[in-house]
């Protein structure tokens, strides 16, 4: 049994308490401005009663393009703008995960003082990540947690002055925002393997008895959470005679429920006879079951404990696969999401259950599919604007204490598992925008390349290309009055390589009888495919890695083996998906003449439940590429669009996302290639991008080619290579706009409250 804080922590609290005894009058009863009620968090009223509040919250993401997640803005006006917009969205709570600069708290203070009718409550996080070697009780680790806890309490009460440290902000905190503090929330999602590691290290640590919060018969990690929560609220109580509700952050992979549909790695090996070696532990999502319900509080601590979970509809798989959840219904129809929420709420019964993160990202590519259509990506902004309110109503109807939407702004530094192994340099992913990375697109406010708006709106607007010189090249065509490629232009920004093709003497804008093919040479030195895909019987003098074909009103992406991002495990009896390894090789011109493929991502691997039920794998074909313009309100508006046709101006425009071209560090022209020695994913610096364009009849006969055609070989080299200077954080330009989900949530939140 270990019931102690660190020595430093106890001495700090004892010293503070002793000072009060020596210098002040008899201690008055602690103030309890907010508390955890039976179902909701509650707010003290002037008459001494408590009023329940349904949390309509916003998670404050703050990393602007080019910035690290710890790149906190030192700009009070920016924070004030954000808080004002959040309040105007009818949110009543803003959550921060960690300590922010004084600018944030000054802005919150100013807004709430100026607009008491739209005051925004604060849920303050105390950041904590897993320690090395799973030792949560290590002295240096505990000292760091305790320091962050003290700093958080002091700054909330306008009584802190500490310096910045690597990864941590600081400053002088003089604004007392404690009147608007709703609750404390410790930590982030905790990985099951980290918890299991601690349990193996300290199986004896099953009892913690604190001054305010205890865990008298729990698992080691539950006792540790109780210790940290107790330290936090005890420090605030002793130093400021004030109490606020407290809990730790959690998520479904460590929830207290058990799911028949979710076997863990070892279970699945036993049930299905699979080989577990080499399998990633992220699929053990029902191995650890922890809960704050094992906490008890003393009579002195009136603020109480609540429960907090991050719950998205698409992960883990048991939210979708569990039979009981598949039968659940929300206001509109089937909803596995509300099925899970009701199950979790039933477990916590009369303890407030806050859904501290939920939401959906927009973007063309889903990285995990969900049966009700609430995918991890693969949704337009308009669809997100419909679906996030529906998830919110499910949170409300299931009896939860509220929900905090994730998140305020899009953040470029984030990464989804499908691309995470490829970014290089790893730390520089913040310097460019990946439309196809769902994690970068959760914001209520979009942050996108282009200083004043999109650099190319895919609307055939010639003015957007007026300053861009045409590429060198000549159109070879089969008839003087036949279709001709008039000009080709390229430009780029932090998100895309933009291409504009002007055609003349052309009328088949549905491409019903003609096809247009755009080839991209990224690697150079004839390292791609020397033959074009589809019906074309043409060669390329440089080799191509990517080709976009436009036929019958659709655009499709074709890639060579050089750029195969993902492939299945080559492990016997294991259909589990792995991250693809891109191997550097040169395709043989004859043997590999037609080896082109359409990229497909296995989003959901095959699963086997504890009862032997098989849940088949699911995949997503990136084709066809989404079409439309970026002119909001236009009939063809589509925020996911990659290409479009504008017959009025005779233009075809393509904004090719860097990642689909194989660029994993476009700011340095870095293209994905494996390290030939380690065979690990790496990159090499490209010399630029070559482009070639072919027009053909349905039978493959050529009607036009650019920049040159010699003996059935398209001479891509004639146009040279499009290259650019390296850019850094200081060079990034971006614009912001509120997404449709902002307005749909604004409308919903206006009328959503405790009955």
Explain this structure to me?
This protein is of the alpha+beta class. About 20% of the residues lie in helices and about 25% in strands. The protein contains 13 helices and 40 strands. The strands form 12 sheets. Strands 4-5-6-9-11-13-14-15 form an 8-stranded parallel barrel, surrounded by 5 helices. Strand 7 (about 160) and strand 8 (about 170-175) form a beta hairpin. The two termini are about 45 Å apart. Residues about 1-25, about 275-280, about 570-580 and about 585 have low confidence and may be disordered.
Low-confidence stretches: 1-26, 275-280, 568-581, 583-587
* Class per helix and strand makeup: alpha+beta
Instruction: Give the CA-CA distance, first to last residue.
Output: 45 Å
The strands making up the biggest β-sheet line up spatially as 4-5-6-9-11-13-14-15
Oligomer: single chain
The overall pLDDT average reads 90
- Our Rg estimate from Cα atoms comes to 29 Å
The count of DSSP E runs of length 2 or more, i.e. the number of strands, is 40
Annotation field: number of helices: 13
Major sheet: size, sense and barrel closure?
8 strands, parallel, barrel
Q: Helix share of residues?
A: 10-25%
Instruction: Name the beta content range.
Output: 15-25%
Shape: elongated
Key traits:
alpha+beta, 8-stranded parallel barrel, 6-stranded antiparallel beta sheet, elongated, disordered N terminus
SSE diagram, text form:
Blueprint: H1 7-23, E1 34-36, E2 41-44, E3 50-53, E4 55-59, H2 76-88, E5 93-96, H3 102-114, E6 121-126, H4 139-156, E7 160-162, E8 171-173, E9 181-186, H5 192-201, E10 213-214, H6 220-240, E11 246-250, H7 265-272, E12 296-297, E13 307-310, H8 318-321, H9 323-326, H10 336-348, E14 353-358, H11 381-397, E15 402-405, H12 417-420, E16 445-449, E17 476-477, E18 484-492, E19 496-504, E20 514-521, E21 529-531, E22 539-544, E23 546-551, E24 554-559, E25 566-568, E26 577-579, E27 600-604, E28 607-608, E29 614-615, E30 618-621, E31 643-646, E32 651-657, E33 663-665, E34 670-674, E35 681-685, E36 690-697, E37 702-706, E38 709-710, E39 713-714, E40 734-738, H13 740-750
Parallel strand pairs: 4-5, 4-15, 5-6, 6-9, 9-11, 11-13, 13-14, 14-15, 22-39
Antiparallel strand pairs: 1-2, 2-3, 7-8, 10-12, 16-40, 17-37, 18-19, 19-32, 20-23, 20-36, 21-22, 23-24, 25-26, 27-30, 28-29, 31-32, 33-34, 34-35, 36-37, 38-39
Helix pairs in contact: 1-6, 2-3, 4-6, 11-13
């Amino acid at each position: 049994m270990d019931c102690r804080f660190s020595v430093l922590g106890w001495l700090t609290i004892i010293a503070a308490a002793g000072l009060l005894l020596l210098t002040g009058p008899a201690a008055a009863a602690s103030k309890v401005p907010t508390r955890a009620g039976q179902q909701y968090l509650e707010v003290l009223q002037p008459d001494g009663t408590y009023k329940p509040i349904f949390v309509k919250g916003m998670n404050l993401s703050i990393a602007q393009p080019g910035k690290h997640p710890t790149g906190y803005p030192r700009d009070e006006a920016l924070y004030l703008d954000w808080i004002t917009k959040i309040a105007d969205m009818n949110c009543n709570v803003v959550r921060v995960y960690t300590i922010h600069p004084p600018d944030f708290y000054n802005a919150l203070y100013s807004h709430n003082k100026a607009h008491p009718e739209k005051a925004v409550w604060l849920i303050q996080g105390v950041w904590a990540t897993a320690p090395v070697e799973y030792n949560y009780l290590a002295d240096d680790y505990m000292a760091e947690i305790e320091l962050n806890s003290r700093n958080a309490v002091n700054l909330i009460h306008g009584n802190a002055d500490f310096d910045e440290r690597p990864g941590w902000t600081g400053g002088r905190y003089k604004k007392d925002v404690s009147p608007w503090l709703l609750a404390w929330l410790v930590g982030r999602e905790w990985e099951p393997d980290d918890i299991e590691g601690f349990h193996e290290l300290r199986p004896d640590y099953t009892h913690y008895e604190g001054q305010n919060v205890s865990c008298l018969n729990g698992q080691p990690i539950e006792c540790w959470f109780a210790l940290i929560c107790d330290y936090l609220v005890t420090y605030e109580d002793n130093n400021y005679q004030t109490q606020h509700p407290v809990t730790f952050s959690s998520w479904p992979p460590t929830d207290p429920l058990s799911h028949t549909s979710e076997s863990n790695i070892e279970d699945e090996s036993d049930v299905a006879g699979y080989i577990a070696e080499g399998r990633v532990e992220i699929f053990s999502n029902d191995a650890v079951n922890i809960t704050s319900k094992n906490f008890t509080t003393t009579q002195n601590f009136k603020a109480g404990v609540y429960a907090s979970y991050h719950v998205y509809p698409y992960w883990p798989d048991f939210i979708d696969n569990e039979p009981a959840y598949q039968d659940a219904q929300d206001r509109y129809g089937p909803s596995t999401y509300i099925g899970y929420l009701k199950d979790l709420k039933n477990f916590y019964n009369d303890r407030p259950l806050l859904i501290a993160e939920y939401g959906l990202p927009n973007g063309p590519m889903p990285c995990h599919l969900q049966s009700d259509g609430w995918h991890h990506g693969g949704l337009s902004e308009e669809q997100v604007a419909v679906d996030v309110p529906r998830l919110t109503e499910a949170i409300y109807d299931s009896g939860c204490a509220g929900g905090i939407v994730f998140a305020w702004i899009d953040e470029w530094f984030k990464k989804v598992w499908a691309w995470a192994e490829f970014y290089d340099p790893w730390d520089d992913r913040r310097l460019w925008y990946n439309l196809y990375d769902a994690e970068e697109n959760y914001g209520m406010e979009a942050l996108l390349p282009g200083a004043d708006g999109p650099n190319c709106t895919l609307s055939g607007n010639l003015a957007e290309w007026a300053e861009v010189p045409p590429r060198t090249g000549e159109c070879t065509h089969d008839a003087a009055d036949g279709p001709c490629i008039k000009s080709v232009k390229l430009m780029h920004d932090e998100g895309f390589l933009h291409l504009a093709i002007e055609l003349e003497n052309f009328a088949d804008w549905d491409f019903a009888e003609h096809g247009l093919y755009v080839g991209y040479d990224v690697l150079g030195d004839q390292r791609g495919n020397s033959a074009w895909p589809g019906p074309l019987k043409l060669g390329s003098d440089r080799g191509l890695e990517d080709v976009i074909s436009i036929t019958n009103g659709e655009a499709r992406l074709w890639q060579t083996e050089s750029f195969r991002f993902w492939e299945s495990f080559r492990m016997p009896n294991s259909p589990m998906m792995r991250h693809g390894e891109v191997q550097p090789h040169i395709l043989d011109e004859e043997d590999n003449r037609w080896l082109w493929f359409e990229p497909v991502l296995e989003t959901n691997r095959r699963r086997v439940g504890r009862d032997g039920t098989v849940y088949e794998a699911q995949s997503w074909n990136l084709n066809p590429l989404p079409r439309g313009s970026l002119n909001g309100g236009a009939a063809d508006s589509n925020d996911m669009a990659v290409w479009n046709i504008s017959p009025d101006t005779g233009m075809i425009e393509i904004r090719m996302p860097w990642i689909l071209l194989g660029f994993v560090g476009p700011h340095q022209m870095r293209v994905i290639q494996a390290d030939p020695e380690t065979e690990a994913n790496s990159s090499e610096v490209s010399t630029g991008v070559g482009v070639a364009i072919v027009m053909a009849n349905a039978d493959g006969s050529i009607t036009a080619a650019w920049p040159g055609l010699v003996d059935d070989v398209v001479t891509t080299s004639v146009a040279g290579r499009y290259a650019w200077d390296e850019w850094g954080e200081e060079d990034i330009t971006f614009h912001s706009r509120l997404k449709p989900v902002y307005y749909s949530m604004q409308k919903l939140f206006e009328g959503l409250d405790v009955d």
